[in-house]
Structure formats: C-alpha cells, structure tokens
C-alpha cells in the first residue's frame, strides 16, 4: 500500500514539474514574441517618419538628409547646369523630384510593411545585438534594390510629365560640349540619345528618394526612438 502511495506521489510530482516547465517555456516564447513585435513597431514608427517627409514636397526639399542622399552623378549634372547660369532649371528639377517622391510613397509602403511583417526572432536578435540603427539597416539590406526598381517607373512618369529632360535639352541647345559633358556624367556613349538622360535622371532621383528615406528613418531610430532594456532582454533571453 505504501509502495502504491509513493508511486502516486512521484507521479504527481513529476506531472507538476512538467507543467511548470511547460508554463516557463510558454512564458519565454510569449515574451520573445512581445520583443519581436516591439521591434516591428519600432521600424513601423521610424519608416512612417520617413514617409511623412516624402509625402510633403516642402519637407522633402528642405530636409538635409534628403539633399545629402543625392547621387554624385545628379550633383554633377546640376553643377554643370548651374555653371551655365541655369540655377532656376536646377530648382525646377529638384521640385519635380520632390513631387515624384510624394507619388512614390504609395508604391514603397507595401514593400516596407511586408519586410517588417516578415521579421523573425532570429532577425530581431540580430537587430538588437546590432545596436541603434541596425533595424533600419536590416530593412535597407532587404528592400533597397526592390524599392528603387519599384518606384522608378512612377518617378520617371512624374518627371516626364513635367518635361524636365526636355527643359534641359532646350536649355543646353546645340552646345555639343555641354551635351558631351552630360553624357560623360551619365556614362552614355551615344551622344545623340536623349532617352539615356531621361532614364538616368529618373534612376538617380529614385536612388535619392529611397536612400534619403532610409537615412531619415535611421536618424530617427538612433536619436528619437528608444528600445527599453526590458524589450532587449525579452528578445535575447525570453525573460
């Protein structure tokens, strides 16, 4: 009888320990899930900050990070035009790019949202270990090329609607020296082609928009956002 009772006690104790172990594992998994969701919310917040700048043409034009993100080739084109006294044309080009940025947001948002949604626990751990700014760098590595390819047709459509390439062509006229300079900048060997200039400007503008977007998001993540030690601990340790 005592043997039966002892067996029951051992069995009951084992069951309790097993249940406690399961509860601990469940809490750990749940806490990790909370941490991953916190990372997702952080990146949603930082990229929304970027989108708010892109959606507002005036904010786009006056943002120093957007200006710094301009590709060197586009800077050279603008410098060439300014040296000809065509400063107003450069200002128009920048305004048209700002307008294009506004229209590109509708294309960019779903791509970013999907990448954020796909973040796994492994990704979250890597982001947390990388420190501030690592979250946006993760998104940039995942989506940069896709974003540029996706928004370029939209950007080109907007720039063509405003006729920026035609304005540049008309302004430089028959000056073969200037045409050759522009073609050298964009790497166009066919000096009679205007299509290359159109494609190049839309490509450079798309790169500026996407890279500027990530730079704004990263700046916000580094300087404004805050990942608490509790969230970091839950991601790394499940506590």
TrEMBL record:
The keyword Signal applies. The keyword Signal applies. It comes from the Bacteria. Keywords: Signal. InterPro entries: DUF4197 (IPR025245). Residues 1-21 form the signal peptide. Pfam families: DUF4197. This is DUF4197 family protein. The lineage of its organism: Bacteria, Pseudomonadati, Bacteroidota, Flavobacteriia, Flavobacteriales.
């Amino acid at each position: 009888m005592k043997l039966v009772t002892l067996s029951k006690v051992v069995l009951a104790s084992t069951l309790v320990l097993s249940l406690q172990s399961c509860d601990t594992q469940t809490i750990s998994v749940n806490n990790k899930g909370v941490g991953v969701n916190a990372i997702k919310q952080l990146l949603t917040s930082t990229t929304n900050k970027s989108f708010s700048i892109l959606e507002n043409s005036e904010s786009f034009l006056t943002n120093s990070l957007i200006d710094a993100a301009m590709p060197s080739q586009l800077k050279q084109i603008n410098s060439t035009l300014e040296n000809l006294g065509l400063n107003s044309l450069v200002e128009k080009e920048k305004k048209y790019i700002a307008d294009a940025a506004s229209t590109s947001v509708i294309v960019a948002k779903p791509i970013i949202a999907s990448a954020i949604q796909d973040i796994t626990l492994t990704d979250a751990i890597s982001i947390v270990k990388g420190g501030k700014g690592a979250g946006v760098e993760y998104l940039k590595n995942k989506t940069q090329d896709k974003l540029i390819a996706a928004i370029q047709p939209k950007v080109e459509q907007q720039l063509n609607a405003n006729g920026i390439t035609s304005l540049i062509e008309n302004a430089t006229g028959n000056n073969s020296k200037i045409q050759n300079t522009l073609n050298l900048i964009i790497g166009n060997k066919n000096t009679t082609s205007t299509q290359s200039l159109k494609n190049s400007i839309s490509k450079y503008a798309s790169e500026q928009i996407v890279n500027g977007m990530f730079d704004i998001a990263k700046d916000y993540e580094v300087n404004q956002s805050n990942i608490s030690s509790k969230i970091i601990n839950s991601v790394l340790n499940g506590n």
